[in-house]
C-alpha cells in the first residue's frame, strides 16, 4: 500500500533508464489536500546533495504538495549545475501540478559526483504525472522506483484508533550510519495535523529509529525523511497516539533497512542497559555496532565477546562511566562474559537465528538504549567493491 | 637483526604449543646492561589486558631488564586470575635472571577472554632463557614468536651517526586503530639515554606513526610499545638525532603493519592538506580512513571520490573548518574532485599500484597530516569470520 494508503495521496513509479537496473527509477508522490502540511529531517553531512539543499529550504515553511524522487544518481557534489538540476526538476513538477516550485520536494539517490541526465528525470516526471493513482499498485511502483542496492521494496502502514491512516516507503541498504535518518523515506498521513506537530513527531521518531541503525558506519549525502499530511480523513488524532504511531512506523522501516542491509546474513540488535544515562548507553551501543571485527565474527557465527568488550572499552569514561570488571554480556540469552571475565562457554550460544541479540549490562545505572546493525559479509565487500565503478 | 642489533641485548623465540600455528609463540628479550632504561606506551582501551596492567606499572620507574611475550592468547578480560598469570610469568622470568619481578615486562596477543596455559608459558620462558643469544637468528626467532595473523615478521634497524644502534620488532595486522600504538612492539638501543629521554622520544614517535594507522578501526586491549636502552655502546646520541631516529623506525614499523594489514590488497595513504590545524587535518584523514565503503571501492580498484567526500562531510565544522565547495581530491595524482565538483574522469586514475595515494586539499589553511589504512577485501572478512572461533 505504501504512501497511497492514507486518503488524499496519489503516487506513481516509472522506468526512465536513469538507473541501469531494469526497474522503475522515478517516483512521484502528490498530496491532493485539502491540507499540505509537511516536515522533514535531513542528513547532517556537510557535503549534502543538491536535492537535500533544495528540499530543506522547500520544507522549512511546512508546506509541500509533492515529492519527486529518483534512483540512479545522487546529484551530490555536483556544484551549482547540480543545484540547478534539482531546481529545474521542482519547477517542472510544480508547473504540472500548478503549484509553486518551493511546494515540491526533490530526492535523489545513487552515485555521488555525477550530474543527472536531466531530460530523463523530466520525462520521468511527466510520465509519472500521467500515471498518478491512489491505488496500492501505484504506491508499490513508487516504492520500487527508489530502490538501489535494496533487494526488496520497504513499505509500512498504520491505522489510528479513530481511523486516520499512515503510510510509508523507504529505501536504504548501504551507506547507513546513525547521524540522522536513512536514505530516502516518504511518510504520508490523512490525519489533520499542523506542520509543527509533524516536525515534532518526526524528529522524535527519527531519533529512536533511523538514528539508531548502522549498516556500515558511512553517512550519506542524501538522507531525507519527509512526512506529509493531507488532512483528507478530516480526523484529528490524539497527539500522543499520533507521535507513538509515527515512532512505531519509523522503527518498522528502520528494522526493514537493517533486515535488508547490504550483504547481511545476520541482523544484530545491541541493547546496552545498566547505563548512567541513555546517551551513555547509546555511545556504548554505537561503539559496538561499529566494530568490523565483531561484524565479521557474527557472519562466521562466532559470538566473539572479546570483540564486544574491546569496542566497549573505546568509549571514554566521561561519556559512559562504568567499571569494566562489572560488565556482563549475553549473546542470544547466554551470559558469555560475566563481570568482565569469561562466563558460560561460547559454544552454548545458538547462532543459527538470523536475528542476533547482544545484551550488555554495564551495571552502573538504570538507563538503556538499543542500536541495530548487520554483520559484515563477503557479499558486502562484493557489492561495494563492484558497485557502479 | 631485530632487537639483537644493538649491543647488550639477547633474545630467543621458542615454540611451546600455546598457539595452534606451527611456529614460535614465546619470545624473550633481555637487556644485559650496563643500563636498563625503559619507556612504554600502551593501549587506552578500558578493557586493557592483564599484561598491559602489569607492564604499565613495571615500566613506570623507567627500569626494565627483560620482556617476555607470547602469541596464542591475549590474557585480556580474564579478571584477577589473568592478572595473577602475568604476575607469575614476570616472577618466573625474574627468578631466572635474578632481577626483581617489576623489572620484567609482559606482553600477550591472541584471543581475548581466555586464560593462558600458564605451564606452557613458563616452560617457554625457561626454554627461551636457555637459548638466549645476541645473534641475528635469535632476534628473528623472537620476531616470529609474536606473530598472529601477520603473514611476515616485521623488524627494522637504524644506525646513529656516531655509531649507536636501534633495533625493533613489531607484530600487528588486525585490530589496529589509531588510539595509541599498535599490537606489540619492542625497540632496543645501545645508546646511553635516560628513561625520560626514552619516554619523550617514544611518545612523540608513536604519535606520528602507530597513532596514524588504521587497519579496521578496532582498538586492541593489548597494545604495547616498549623502548629499552642498554647503554652498551657507551655512546651518547645527539638528542634531536635520537628522537628523529626513533620516529623514523616507528614510522617504518607502522608502514610494515599497514603493508601486512589483514587481507589487504592495497595500502592507502591519505594526506589532508590545506587544513587550519594539524588536528583538523588528522580528524579529516581519520574519517576517510574509517570508511568501509571507500575501503571496499579501493579493493575493487575504483577511485570512488564520492565515498571520500561523504566521509569528509561527517567531520564537524568546529573540528575542521572548511568550505565543501573548495575541497579538491587527487587519487594517485589525478584531480578527480575539483572544488567539490567532478574534476578529471575517474578512468584516468591508474589503480594498478599496491600503494594508493589520496591527497585531499581543504583549501582552508596551511597545515597537513597523513594517515594510513588498507582496503577492505574478501580476505579480511574470511580471516575475521573464521579466525579462532
Helical content of chain A, roughly? Answer: 25-40%
Sheet bearing the most strands of chain A, described?
7 strands, mixed
Q: Structural class given helices, strands, pairing of chain A?
A: alpha+beta
Oligomer: homodimer
Number of domains as seen in the coordinates of chain A: 2
Q: Secondary-structure element order of chain A, as H and E?
A: EEEHEHEHHEEEHEEHEHHHEEEEEH
- Report the span from N to C terminus of chain A: 34 Å
Instruction: Give the overall pLDDT of chain A as a whole number.
Output: 91
At the fourth CATH level, what is the homologous superfamily of the largest domain in chain A? L-amino peptidase D-ALA esterase/amidase
Which pair of protein chains has the largest interface, and what are the residue counts? A-B, 67 and 66 residues
Amino acid at each position: 500500500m505504501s504512501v497511497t494508503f492514507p486518503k488524499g495521496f496519489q503516487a506513481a513509479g516509472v522506468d526512465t533508464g536513469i538507473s541501469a537496473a531494469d526497474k522503475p527509477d522515478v517516483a512521484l508522490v502528490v498530496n491532493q489536500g485539502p491540507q499540505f502540511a509537511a516536515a522533514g529531517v535531513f542528513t547532517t553531512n556537510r557535503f549534502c546533495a543538491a536535492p537535500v539543499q533544495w528540499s530543506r529550504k522547500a520544507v522549512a515553511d511546512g508546506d509541500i504538495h509533492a515529492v519527486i524522487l529518483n534512483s540512479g544518481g545522487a546529484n551530490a557534489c555536483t556544484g551549482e549545475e547540480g543545484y540547478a538540476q534539482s531546481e529545474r526538476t521542482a519547477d517542472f513538477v510544480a508547473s504540472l501540478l500548478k503549484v509553486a516550485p518551493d511546494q515540491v520536494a526533490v530526492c535523489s539517490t545513487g552515485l555521488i559526483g555525477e550530474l543527472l541526465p536531466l531530460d530523463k528525470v523530466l520525462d520521468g516526471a511527466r510520465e509519472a504525472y500521467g500515471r498518478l493513482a491512489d491505488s496500492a499498485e501505484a504506491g508499490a511502483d513508487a516504492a520500487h522506483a527508489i530502490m538501489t542496492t535494496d533487494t526488496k521494496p520497504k513499505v509500512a502502514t498504520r491505522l489510528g484508533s479513530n481511523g486516520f491512516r499512515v503510510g510509508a516507503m523507504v529505501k536504504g541498504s548501504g551507506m547507513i550510519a546513525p547521524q540522522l535518518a536513512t536514505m530516502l523515506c516518504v511518510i504520508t498521513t490523512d490525519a489533520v495535523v499542523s506542520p509543527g506537530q509533524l516536525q515534532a513527531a518526526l524528529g522524535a521518531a527519527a531519533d529512536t529509529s533511523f538514528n539508531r541503525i548502522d549498516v556500515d558506519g558511512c553517512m550519506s549525502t542524501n538522507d531525507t525523511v519527509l512526512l506529509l499530511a493531507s488532512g483528507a480523513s478530516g480526523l484529528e488524532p490524539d497527539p500522543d497516539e499520533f507521535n507513538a504511531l509515527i515512532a512505531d512506523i519509523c522503527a518498522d522501516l528502520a528494522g526493514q533497512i537493517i533486515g535488508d542491509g547490504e550483504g547481511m546474513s545476520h541482523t544484530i540488535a545491541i541493547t546496552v542497559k545498566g547505563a548512567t544515562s541513555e546517551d551513555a548507553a547509546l555511545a556504548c551501543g554505537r561503539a559496538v555496532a561499529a566494530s568490523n571485527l565483531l561484524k565479521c565474527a557474527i557472519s562466521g557465527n562466532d559470538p566473539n565477546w572479546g570483540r564486544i568488550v574491546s569496542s566497549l572499552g573505546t568509549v571514554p569514561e566521561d561519556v559512559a562511566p562504568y567499571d569494566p570488571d562489572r560488565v556482563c554480556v549475553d549473546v542470544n540469552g547466554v551470559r558469555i562474559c560475566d563481570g568482565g571475565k569469561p562466563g558460560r562457554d561460547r559454544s552454548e550460544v545458538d547462532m543459527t537465528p538470523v536475528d542476533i541479540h547482544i545484551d550488555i549490562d554495564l551495571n552502573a545505572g538504570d538507563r538503556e538504549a538499543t542500536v541495530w546493525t548487520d554483520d559484515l559479509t563477503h557479499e558486502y565487500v562484493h557489492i561495494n567493491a563492484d558497485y557502479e565503478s
